[in-house]
Structures are given as structure tokens and as C-alpha cells.
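6-phosphogluconolactonase
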Amino acid sequence: MKTLATLLIILPAMIFAQHQPIDLFIGTYTNNGKSKGIYVYAFDPATGSATLRSTAAANNPSFLAISADRKYIYAANENGDGEGAVSAYAYDEATGRLSLLSQQLTQGDAPCHVAVDRGGTHVVVSNYGGGSISVFPIEPDGSLGAISQLIQHTGSGPDQSRQQAPHVHSAFFTPDERRIYVQDLGTDNVHIYDFRPASADGPLIPAAQPVAKSSPGGGPRHLTQSADGKFVYLIEEMIANVLVYRQQNGRLEAIQEVEINEAGFAGKNGAADIKLSPDGQFLYASNRGDANTLAIYRVNATDGTLTKVGNQSVLGRGPRNFNISPDGKYLLVANQNTDEVVVFSRDAATGLLQDTRHRIAVGSPVCLVF
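C-alpha cells:
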């Protein structure tokens, strides 16, 4: 049992730790000359401000993932013409610097998403232009080995202007990491694979339910999941809806579809990212195009369904990605087309957002990772 004297020592240390800056990694597009690569900022949870720590030069590191031990960063280099790649970096927390360890071609154009398992065994890359998934083993030093699996999707969707072929947009591990969900915008499919890192045939194996359908012409882009994996929330880029699935015995069943936009909206859509708050009580979804808003929903704790709370302007254009600070106090939006990250404070009771007036000026920000 802790004595009062011990508590008086521990509690200030805990409070101090909670207010220590945390590192924020920003992926960007560099092909327009506005940015240099990956940016590392120290984000202050006490104030919502950020200070640049380092920059790592890279070509179009549009999406990032961090290893569970925070020693390595993996970046999808969203290049075309056969130059799509994935890069591995060692991260020095003391200096904030990234050091390139290795780079591998993904054998698919325009890789736009990267995921790493908590065990640190594999990196999974989604090739939008190639319509494929590339899997790489992680070496003991954090670098990437040669590609071990390349899965090519086939098919198309009803919108022939956008869905003439497969366009794999993201891959997310389930909370227990027994499966991975792969979103294909071109075919309106969520592909489901069992994840078996030790399998000699490759770690991704089609699950008993290999595909869950989304809305026709919806364009699956990203998803997020409840902490227990019972509910899955899919954002549909082309129609700007959120589709809710219930997961039971390894199978997904669609139970609700809700709109992102405010009533009466008739502009162009480009729904992009979706996140649950750390406490799981609120869900946020962004729409680009003519909307440039975040939709805010309250999550029903019993059945996982959503109730719209409201819409928040992102105070910029092109909210391609956003993230919530680990303590849930802030929501940061990467406004790609206005070259800045907008920092909102978040009300944990209502889910609503308020502008902190803090901005991070960076060219074409497209991914935020804490």
C-alpha cells in the first residue's frame, strides 16, 4: 500500500508526464514543390501548440505508420510510373530525427496507405493506382525485406469515371490483429484477410467471409473500429456516407448508413478520413470537395449506431486526414489545399470542437500520426 509521502512524489510526476510534449509526424506531397518530405513536431498537450523538431527529405511520403515501440516509421511513397515505394526509417526520440533504413518498390503505382502490426513482423501497403496489396517482412533492425506477397484485386464498380478498375485505398488490422480489412474504392468491396504472420504462403489469407460489400458507387476509403472490434465504421469517399457494420463471429453485417454532409448540401464530395475518439463515445468523418467539414456523431454504446451531433468547418480546404491527440483533448486536421494543420480543442462531453487558433504551416499535409 502506498503511503501519503509516496503519493505526493508520484502524483506530480504523473501530472508532469501527461503534459510532456508528444511527437507528431506529418506526411506530405512533395511533387508540387511546397514541402520536403516528413516533418516531426513536438506537440504540447498543455497548450495545443507545436514546435518543429526535424525534417526528413522524401518523395511524396503521403501516408505514415509508426511501430508499436515507436522506434520506426514507415512511409508510403505515393509515386507513379512504376516508382511507387515504401520506406523504413529509424526514429531517434531524443533528437527527433529520422534516418532512412531501406526502401522497397511496392510493384504497384500510387501506394497511398501503409500499416504495421503491433508485433512488428510485417508492413502492408495499399496501392491505389495498382489496385493491389504489397506485404513486406520487417527485419530485426526495423528495415524492410524483399516483398513477400503481392495480392492483385480485380473487378470494377458502377461509376465508370472512378471505378473502371480496382483502387485499393487502405488496410487496417482488427484490434486483435487476427484479420485485416482492405478497402477497395474501385470495386465497392471491403476485402477481409486472415493475418497469419508465420504462414509460409504469405501472411494474408482470404477469410471465411472474403468480402463485405459497401454501397454501390460509394467508394470505400478508410475505416475505424471500436476497441473490441464489434463495430466497424467505413467512410465512403464518393457519396460521403458512413457505413456501420456489426462484426460477429468474424463476419461483417451492415446495420446503418448515415450522411456526412449537412442537410441540403448539393456540392462536390470527397470524403476522406474517419476516426473514433479515444473513449469511443464520438466518431468524426471528413469531407473535402465543396464541403470542407468534419461530421460529428455520438456513438450508441449498446448497438454501435451513430447519431449526428453536427458539422464543423475545418477552417481550410482539403481535409485529407486528421487525428486526435492520445489524451483526446485535441483534434488536428491536415488541410492539404491550404497548406496547414488546424488545431481544434475537443469537448469530451459533447464531442464538439473549438478553434485553438494554433496552426502548423506545412506544404500539402496529408497524414498526421502521433
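DSSP finds one helix and 28 strands in the chain.
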